[in-house]
From TrEMBL:
Keyword Lipid biosynthesis in record: no
SMART domains, sorted: RNAse_Pc
Protein name in UniProt: Ribonuclease A-domain domain-containing protein
Domain Ribonuclease A-domain: 28-146
Pfam families named among the record's database cross-references: RnaseA
SUPFAM superfamilies: RNase A-like (SSF54076)
Family classification: Belongs to the pancreatic ribonuclease family.
GO BP terms, alphabetized: angiogenesis; defense response to Gram-negative bacterium; defense response to Gram-positive bacterium
One Gene Ontology cellular component annotation held by this UniProt entry: extracellular region
GO molecular function: endonuclease activity; hydrolase activity; nucleic acid binding; RNA nuclease activity
Record-linked Gene3D superfamilies: Ribonuclease A-like domain (3.10.130.10)
Amino acid sequence: MEIHQSAVILLLILSISSFTHGQPPAHIKPRYEKFLKQHYNPDMTVQKCDTVIRANRDFIHSETENGCKKINTFIKANSNDIKAVCGKAGKPYRNMVASTKPFSVVTCKLHSGDTHPNCKYRGVQDTRYIVLACEHGWPVHYDEGIYKPNGS
């Protein structure tokens, strides 16, 4: 079996192209990774709120005296479906982007706790349209304060 040099070059170009298009630009990557850590969990359940939030130092929050974040929503979806909201699966909404279809989410609300990491949360599962801030086609922020029950 003979491999032609042009076939090898084409394969190399396709490999590099798919790799570079699958990663956010270097200046966006930390914000995208933080977004994923805080809001992406396809296996999230209401019973996991305490465990998941306690395990992640990104949830230490300055909005409360005890460092406990008041509310956090986890999107239960494929990361590519979430990213698509920044493109064809989203539409402009205020200065952000809203999904054109609802997503399954688990919202964890602070119930009690002395200080982080001893925060106690109660979770609620829901289906809702999500609102994201995107940069260069990558989600970097989930807006907890905007609830769009009917996608309008």
